[in-house]
Amino acid sequence: MAGEEGAGQEKGFKLLGILDVQRTPCAKDAILHGAGGSVAAGMLFFLSTSRVRRTFDVGFAGFMLTTLGSWFYCRMNNAKLRVQQRVIQEGIRNKMIIMTCCCSHNIS
């Protein structure tokens, strides 16, 4: 019985115990972009300088910058999309009100 109750709820993957990656918008994509950015930055720096310790620092900085950049870009696009959807919904609502008013006068 207890196993059946838990089967209906999906457990999300929590990063550092605070960020639920599956339920937070843009989190999964931002983490994946950050991982790719860290590998690319670290490899390019290592191939150009062959300094191992500094390569880790550059890779970590690449992860942080790419993750935050991807996160903010995605969040801004989502916010812009929500504003556009709200404007469209209000326009449709206003059109329905106008159509209702016009049609009720034509029928009488």
TrEMBL record:
The keyword Transmembrane helix applies. Its main location: mitochondrion. Pfam families: Cox20. It comes from the Eukaryota. Keywords: Membrane, Mitochondrion, Mitochondrion inner membrane, Transmembrane, Transmembrane helix. The chain crosses the membrane at residues 55-73. One of its GO terms (cellular component) is mitochondrial inner membrane. GO terms for biological process: mitochondrial respiratory chain complex IV assembly. It is found in: Mitochondrion inner membrane. InterPro entries: Cox20. Belongs to the COX20 family. This is Cytochrome c oxidase assembly protein COX20, mitochondrial. It comes from Poecilia reticulata.
